[in-house]
């Protein structure tokens, strides 16, 4: 038993070990990397992908995938920006944006459950349509006359005790996800749906509702990321969030979550998010050209995922 | 071919599963391997056929020491293993499954469909099963899938065939055919290892019997020189007494009633009642539609019409959740596909059907979950390393107990059991029967589908017989016997 446990343990910690190694190596080469302020900005950068990756984890745990997150992000920020520039109170506009994110997620979920489409196809459709709608809605142009609301600036640029607000939000959301997935009946249903939906269904789990909830969460998280980007950039762009689904999926995969559903842990996704952030940030600081960066990133994912499959 | 296994040890992650196990298989004999759930029967056979590697011990085939590295090697040496858990590709056809990796080819690697179809027909005929070779595997019942597995083994020119609970999913008549086939194989000098928990079968079919307990070799007996009590004593180390414990349930009012339940093309106009504290047995041949009727009652079949009443009030079970809310529990026949999340722990599997019970406003209570799971493991004597044991790594019978544990704590008013003791050992069966009795004594109405006639007869107050989707009759305890049931199940009439 001890042997088995020990090897499982190492396997469990594989991604974490990779993260520590990366930090040590890049830190050893670059003094610029190993400063507190760089770590804080690294964390802040990672939060954008982090929110999306948490939502993505839920969807993948149910055995699905959500390709639409980048488009949902763009469309919700577009709405939010136009609400604000139209004079709506910023707080209300943000809440509305989150709700709209939920609605867009639900729509993907409906296509998957009631529409019986493969998650990949369903969200490929919503991804394309939402992106198109964003373009139509914004007429291809950014929306930037957002005034200077304190709240809007706070979300993306603010600090509390020297820690960026996005990082604090990231940690809070992380804690909520850990709680929901590990300690609630809803979390159990998510895992059960992905593990064996037939068995779960016969045990009284509402499969369709569970899946829809997962997509709704994913949509909402994409909207959260969007709000932070909106605050940081001070404007909404029609191409915002393009390709973000890939980083999110990569983070989930790095965390060892099974793409077939049913297996995975949210803290590992958290580690996966950090690995990607360290790579992005570190390779930039080291002056690696962006073409090479992608190759290195792909390689790290390959190594991490392969080491995870050894059983 | 003669096989001797001696002093075999095997442990998984530090847990010893086999401790000096072994047996001797003679040329042309049918050798039964018996032992409780988790005794190590399947593991021993997996070691012989190269699925697992042994930690210690010797395997001799015709006096030569061998160590097959994988099942293919064993098969080439003439040893075929029909696994306990079905090994089929559900999306392929019967034919494709049977010829997987052994396709008959014309030139240029093109499959010779005609030759293959011919071959498949020949073997299926020999087994007396009426299955279209072009049908997809997932359209077949578990029993039919099992027959295909057996057919697959017959295709190979084997000298030793290992059958790990081949009849667990078969009914009486399929079993009879299988026995004929097995007997004729023996006459040709083929040796058979036969693993089963069905005592009657062992005594009907086998020549010798070897018993394992807790992974150790206990002894080998000639069937003629032993009896059931003896075997049970060797298996579990004590006597178990009456196999079907007496029930003191008072049979009360009608609790549950089904009227005119119909699913076009599957079953028609099924009506019956179940009383509080009653066990209604359901018998019939493979593919008679028993499982489908139960699935329909539980809201897990499309296109069903008819009426269902609980305590006189009409209920609608549009899906399993509603059925559960209405107080119906359902233990499915297929633990691998529907019964369990195989990759999850025992704990998560038991919990999932009891989420309401172990949580408050959606938040799980670790204490009540631990307590519930501990109770399940203890009451059903699930042999495992603990609540976190992954179901994949449990022995077949213990997996079945986990499915059982999922449901008995949901406080159902009506409990539907579809093959509740499939693959369960004789001691554990008795435990399950006692639990069924306890539930009945508490007033639960129980519907028990079973292909094991002795079980139906031993446990039921009444027996309902289904044939080709039609209810042929309901027999009272006094008139329920093997003969009457078989007559109804095969389409005959009972003369008054
Ligand atoms: N791959 C595995 N990893 C860990 N434990 C295992 C594994 N395979 C089997 N075991 C354990 O080994 C023991 C023996 O299992 P085995 O399947 O051989 O029992 P069995 O005698 O065939 O029982 P049954 O009658 O229920 O089929 C069980 O306790 C089981 O939990
Ligand atoms: Mg077994």
How would you explain this protein's 3D organization?
The complex is a heterodimer of chains A (311) and B (496). With 311 residues, chain A is mostly helical. Chain A has one domain (36-308): ABC transporter involved in vitamin B12 uptake, BtuC (Orthogonal Bundle), CATH 1.10.3470. Chain A is built from 14 helices and 2 strands, in the order H-H-H-H-H-H-H-E-E-H-H-H-H-H-H-H. In chain A, helix 2 packs parallel to helix 13 (266-285) and helix 3 (36-61) crosses helix 13. Chain A is globular, with a radius of gyration of 19 Å. Chain B is of the alpha/beta class. Chain B has 2 domains: 3-236, Rossmann fold; 254-489, Rossmann fold (3-Layer(aba) Sandwich). Chain B has helices spanning 41-48, 71-76, 94-98, 113-126, 142-155, 172-187, 199-205, 228-236, 290-297, 320-325, 335-339, 346-352, 366-379, 396-408, 426-441, 453-459, 482-489, and strands spanning 3-12, 15-25, 30-34, 56-61, 64-65, 79-82, 160-164, 191-195, 208-213, 216-222, 254-263, 267-275, 279-284, 305-310, 313-315, 328-331, 359-360, 363-364, 414-418, 445-449, 462-467, 470-476. In chain B, strands 6-7-8-3-9-10 form a 6-stranded mixed sheet, sandwiched between helices. In chain B, a hairpin with a 2-residue loop joins strand 4 (56-61) and strand 5. Chain B starts with a strand and ends in a 7-residue tail after the last helix. The model of chain B has no long low-confidence stretch (mean pLDDT 89). The A-B interface holds A 1-5, 183-186, 188-189, 191-192, 195-196, 198-206, 262-263 and B 12-15, 298, 300, 319-321, 324-325, 330, 332, 337-344, 348-349, 351-353, 355-356, 359, 362-364, 385, 406. The complex binds adenosine-5'-triphosphate and magnesium ion. Adenosine-5'-triphosphate is lined by residues 12, 17, 35, 37-43, 84, 383, 393-398, 423, 425 of chain B.
């Amino acid at each position: 038993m001890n042997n088995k446990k020990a090897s499982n343990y190492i396997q469990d910690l594989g991604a974490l070990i990779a993260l520590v190694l990366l930090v040590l190596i890049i830190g050893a080469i670059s003094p610029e990397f190993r400063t507190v302020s760089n770590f804080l900005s690294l964390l802040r950068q990672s939060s954008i992908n982090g929110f999306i990756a948490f939502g993505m984890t839920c969807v993948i745990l149910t055995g699905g995938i959500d390709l639409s997150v980048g488009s949902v992000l763009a469309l919700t920020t577009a709405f939010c920006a136009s609400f604000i520039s139209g004079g709506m109170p910023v707080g209300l506009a943000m809440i509305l944006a989150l709700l709209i994110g939920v609605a867009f997620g639900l729509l993907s979920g409906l296509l998957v459950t009631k529409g019986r489409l493969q998650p990949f196809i369903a969200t490929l459709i919503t991804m394309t349509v939402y992106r198109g709608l964003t373009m139509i809605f914004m007429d291809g142009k950014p929306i930037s006359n957002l005034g200077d609301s304190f709240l809007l600036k706070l979300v993306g640029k603010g600090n509390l005790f020297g820690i960026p607000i996005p990082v604090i939000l990231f940690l809070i959301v992380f804690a909520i996800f850990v709680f929901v997935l590990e300690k609630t009946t809803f979390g159990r249903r998510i895992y059960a749906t992905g593990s064996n939906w037939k068995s779960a269904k016969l045990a009284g789990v509402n499969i369709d509702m569970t899946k829809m909830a997962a997509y709704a969460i994913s949509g909402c998280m994409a909207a959260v990321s969007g709000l932070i980007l909106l605050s940081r950039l001070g404007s909404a762009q029609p191409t915002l969030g393009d390709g973000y689904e890939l980083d999110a999926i990569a983070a989930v995969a790095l965390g060892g979550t099974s793409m077939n559903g049913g297996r995975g842990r949210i803290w590992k996704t958290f580690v996966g998010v950090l690995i990607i952030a360290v790579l992005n940030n570190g390779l930039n600081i080291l002056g690696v050209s962006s073409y090479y960066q992608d190759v290195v990133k792909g390689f790290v994912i390959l190594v991490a995922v392969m080491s995870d499959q050894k059983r | 071919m003669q096989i001797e296994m001696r002093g075999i040890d095997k442990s998984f992650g530090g847990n010893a599963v086999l401790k000096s196990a072994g047996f001797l298989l003679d040329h042309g004999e049918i050798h039964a391997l018996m032992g409780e759930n988790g005794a190590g029967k399947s593991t021993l056979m997996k070691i012989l056929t190269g699925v697992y590697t042994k930690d210690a011990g010797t395997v001799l085939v015709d006096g030569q020491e061998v160590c097959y590295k994988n099942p293919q090697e064993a098969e080439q040496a003439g040893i075929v293993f029909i696994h306990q858990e079905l090994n089929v590709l559900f999306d392929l056809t019967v034919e494709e499954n049977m010829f997987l990796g052994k396709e008959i080819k014309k030139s240029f690697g093109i499959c010779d469909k005609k030759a293959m179809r011919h071959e498949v027909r020949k073997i299926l005929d020999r087994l007396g099963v009426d299955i279209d070779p072009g049908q997809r595997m997932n359209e077949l019942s578990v029993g039919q899938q099992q027959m295909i597995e057996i057919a697959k083994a017959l295709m190979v020119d084997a000298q030793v065939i290992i059958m790990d609970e081949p009849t667990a999913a078969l009914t009486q008549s399929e079993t009879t055919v299988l026995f004929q086939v097995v007997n004729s194989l023996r006459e040709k000098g083929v040796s058979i290892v036969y693993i089963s928990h069905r005592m009657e079968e062992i005594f009907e079919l086998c020549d010798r019997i070897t018993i394992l307990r807790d992974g150790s070799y206990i002894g080998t007996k000639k069937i003629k020189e032993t009896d059931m009590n003896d075997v049970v004593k060797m298996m579990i180390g004590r006597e178990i007494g009456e196999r079907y414990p007496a029930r003191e349930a008072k049979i009360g009012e009608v609790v549950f009633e089904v009227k005119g339940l119909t699913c076009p093309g599957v079953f028609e106009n099924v009506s019956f009642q179940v009383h509080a504290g009653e066990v209604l047995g359901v018998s019939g041949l493979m593919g008679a539609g028993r499982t489908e009727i139960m699935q329909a009652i539980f809201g897990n079949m499309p296109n069903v019409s008819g009426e269902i009443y609980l305590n006189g009030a009409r209920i609608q079970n549009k899906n399993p959740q509603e059925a559960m809310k209405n107080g119906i529990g359902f233990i499915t026949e297929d633990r691998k596909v529907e019964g369990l999340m195989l990759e999850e722990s025992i704990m998560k599997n038991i919990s999932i059907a009891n989420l309401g019970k172990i949580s408050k406003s959606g938040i799980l209570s670790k204490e009540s979950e631990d307590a519930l799971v501990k109770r399940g493991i203890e009451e059903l004597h699930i042999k495992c390393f603990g609540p976190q044991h992954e179901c994949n790594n449990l022995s077949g019978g213990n997996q079945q107990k986990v499915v059982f544990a999922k449901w008995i704590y949901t406080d159902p008013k009506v409990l539907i059991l579809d093959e509740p003791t499939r693959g369960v050992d004789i001691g554990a069966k008795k435990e399950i029967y006692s639990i069924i009795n306890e539930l009945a004594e508490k007033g639960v109405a129980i519907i028990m589908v079973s292909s094991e006639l002795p079980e139906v007869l031993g446990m039921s107050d009444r027996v309902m017989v289904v044939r080709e989707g039609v209810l042929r009759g309901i027999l009272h305890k006094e008139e329920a016997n093997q003969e009457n049931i078989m007559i109804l199940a095969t389409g005959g009439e009972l003369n008054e």
